[in-house]
Fold this protein.
Amino acid sequence: QSALTQPASVSGSPGQSITISCTGTSSDVGRYNYVSWYLQYPGKAPKLMIYEVTNRPSGVSNRFSGSKSGDTASLTISGLQAEDEADYYCSSYTSSSTLVFGGGTKLTVL
Amino acid sequence: EVQLLESGGDLLQPGGSLRLSCAASGFTFGGYAMSWVRQAPGKGLEWLSAISGSGESTYYADSVKGRFTVSRDNSKNTLYLQMNSLRASDTAIYYCARDGKTVDYFDYWGQGTLVTVSS
């Protein structure tokens, strides 16, 4: 199972909006609405930000939103803040009853 | 408060074996599937394995199938990962995580335990 494809890095200024893409195949992202997004600060455990494409866990800011079109899922962060600077990973359930992560995207807040 | 605490990480030689543990608290352990995820130094996340709440169903990534075995003891609220035939490429931080839904998403994570495989 190949990793989902994410851009290595994205950047934005405070207050702006950015979008991170996550491209899979018809066997994972394109087939199931089981895409999740995680934020990870250096040296820390990942934190769930979005699950099942669009759902936000309790306590996660509504500045974070998810969507999907075909084989590509997206995470949008609006009103960018310095604390959003981190690594972001997407994941998807697959037709092999496994889970695959994306390679990760480093978000830099300029 | 949900807490997951991994232990068992160590430095060992290629070909060796190791068992990791993950002690859970703050929720009904047997009511949730659990997973193991690892992260090699400077690399991304890699899902390894999951086990259903009852322990009856297990799931593995191709990269570890046949070498790693996931298990759980619901009476002890503990998740395990038995790792055999370890390779240098297995060097990573190993996280246990609670499945919000089986092999779907992970709503709580432990702090991780470091496994280093080196001669």
